[in-house]
Amino acid sequence: MKTIQLILDEIQGVMTNVDEHSLEKLAAFLAKGKRIFVIGEGRSGLMAKSFAMRLMHLGANAFVVGETTTPSIEAEDILVAVSGSGKTKSAVWTAEKASSLGCEVVAITTAPNSELALHASFVVNVPAVTKYRTNDDVESIQPLGSLFDQSVHIILDVVCYLYSKITQADEDETFNRHSNLE
């Protein structure tokens, strides 16, 4: 139980330093978007995919960049790019491309001055460590970017909750959008 508490304390430390008002603004921003696309690599990509699934359940037109059924992105769409370092080439390139097409870009990162953030119109700063251990203000007993991934998961779940309140997502409709092939 001691290790569990240490990890929960680490997550709590990050969450207390996240600007909740920015999450409210992000949820409202997403609710006004035509379609929402997400990108991330590795475990950040898994967090992004999880977010897209939750948004789809809530009635959003959400897509994962790189999937075979993902349509082309267009002006008025929103791209949410998740990268702890803000340097992941695929996320940066995709953000740059989406921005050039007239899309709004949201960066979820520990590096608000990163290359990814420079292409974003909206940045959510996640004050956690990544695998690069570049955030000197935060320590973690966990390997690689686990603290970042866990924090992003919670942050994006909060955004989904706020989004559901804004869009007045109906619980029955949300359930009906959940996979029934499992």
TrEMBL record:
Residues 26-169 form the SIS domain. InterPro entries: PHI/rmpB, SIS_dom, SIS_dom_sf. One of its GO terms (molecular function) is carbohydrate derivative binding. Gene3D superfamilies: Glucose-6-phosphate isomerase like protein, domain 1. It comes from the Bacteria. One of its GO terms (biological process) is carbohydrate derivative metabolic process. It holds the Pfam family SIS. Signal peptide: none annotated. Belongs to the SIS family. PHI subfamily. PANTHER family: 3-HEXULOSE-6-PHOSPHATE ISOMERASE (PTHR43443:SF1). This is 6-phospho 3-hexuloisomerase. It comes from Robertmurraya siralis.
